[in-house]
Amino acid sequence: MKPRVLVSREVFDETLEMLAEHFEVESNQADLKHTPEQLAAALADKDGALVSTSDRIDGALLDRCPRLKVVANVGVGYNNLDLPALTAHGVMATNTPDVLTNSVADYTFGLIIATCRRLTEGEHFLRAGEWKGSHLKQMLGVDVHGATLGILGFGRIGQTVARRASGFDMKILYHNRTRLKPAEEAQLGAHYRGKHDLLREADIVVLLTPYSAESHHTIGAAEIALMKPSAVLINVARGGIVDDAALIEALKAKRILAAGLDVYENEPALNPGFLPLKNVVLSPHLASASEPTRKAMAATAARNCIAALTGGEPPNLLNPEVQRKR
Ligand code: DGY
């Protein structure tokens, strides 16, 4: 009998074809969001799963899934997975790094430009029929070129954003748990700063750290207070890294100029305090959402699942200790 695999949210036909060569596949092509109870019930008799970053996989769920050998996350961020619990249950966990790096870096720049140059505010103004003609001081923004960019979290995506930034003649500051080697810093033209110095110096702060208990509310009222009143904050990483209530207060009081956000605390719920504010650009977690990239993410997850269930080494294994125990 073929191993049984659950695909928890809608994927591409080509992803299903890849999986169907090896497995009996149950896919949620209607894309209905499972409750935790429904997800546990659907996984109870499965050997593997492709899950979305909105599916929580924890110890309580795993207790009910005795056959499960692999959970392949369709996403690079995996704060939805309780990795220690997966490891304790002997379940391999994988993610989808690399394939989305360029698309997320592109989108980050889109959000930077949209926020600094008031692009969506201008569109709303136009659509509302309020444009009565151009004038010199109309909807003035701040420049992206030549600005000082501070990148918090300098992994693959952060470094790719830095490469884009050099084309905009920006000064690049970064903060990361591990500092790069001097030659790598020189190649990217990036200067290391402590977190507080970066917040004080940057015109544009981009958040690209993974979410964890440690990075919860990395940016709250105290950190915002360090930023320049003319600064712009961009979050394309995860909700929860920013204290949304504190950010709303700061935007209302013009403690910083503006924010561009693709991710939120408790998404898809959105703190309603953002909605009336003109100095925030909001998008619904789209940074990796180009068609080729989303197809590559799904294919990567499928390859990880296939490798795990056919005796191979999943290319993006997050808990290799599980495989070593087998
Ligand atoms: C990721 O891959 O982590 C993106 O945020 C998409 O969920």
Please name the defining characteristics of this protein.
single chain; 326 residues; alpha/beta; Rossmann fold; 2 domains; 7-stranded parallel beta sheet; 5-stranded parallel beta sheet; 12 strands; globular; binds (2R)-2,3-dihydroxypropanoic acid
Write the layout of secondary structure elements.
Layout: E1 4-7, H1 13-20, E2 24-27, H2 36-43, E3 48-52, H3 59-62, E4 70-74, H4 83-88, E5 92-94, H5 101-116, H6 119-127, E6 148-152, H7 156-166, E7 171-175, H8 182-188, E8 190-192, H9 195-201, E9 204-207, H10 221-226, E10 232-235, H11 244-252, E11 258-261, E12 280-282, H12 291-309, H13 320-325
Helix pairs in contact: 1-12, 5-7
The chain binds (2R)-2,3-dihydroxypropanoic acid.
Residues 53, 75-77, 100, 288 line the site of (2R)-2,3-dihydroxypropanoic acid.
Account of the protein in words:
The protein has 326 residues and is of the alpha/beta class. It folds into two domains: 4-98 and 291-325, Rossmann fold (3-Layer(aba) Sandwich); 101-282, NAD(P)-binding Rossmann-like Domain (Rossmann fold), CATH 3.40.50. It has 13 helices and twelve strands. The protein has helices at residues 13-20, 36-43, 59-62, 83-88, 101-116, 119-127, 156-166, 182-188, 195-201, 221-226, 244-252, 291-309, 320-325; strands at residues 4-7, 24-27, 48-52, 70-74, 92-94, 148-152, 171-175, 190-192, 204-207, 232-235, 258-261, 280-282. The protein has a seven-stranded parallel sheet with strand order 8-7-6-9-10-11-12, with helices on both faces. Helix 1 packs parallel to helix 12 and helix 5 (101-116) packs across helix 7. The longest helix is centred in the C-terminal third of the chain and has 19 residues, at 291-309. The protein is globular. The two termini are 21 Å apart. The mean pLDDT is 97. (2R)-2,3-dihydroxypropanoic acid (DGY) is lined by residues 53, 75-77, 100, 288. (2R)-2,3-dihydroxypropanoic acid is lined by residues 53, 75-77, 100, 288.
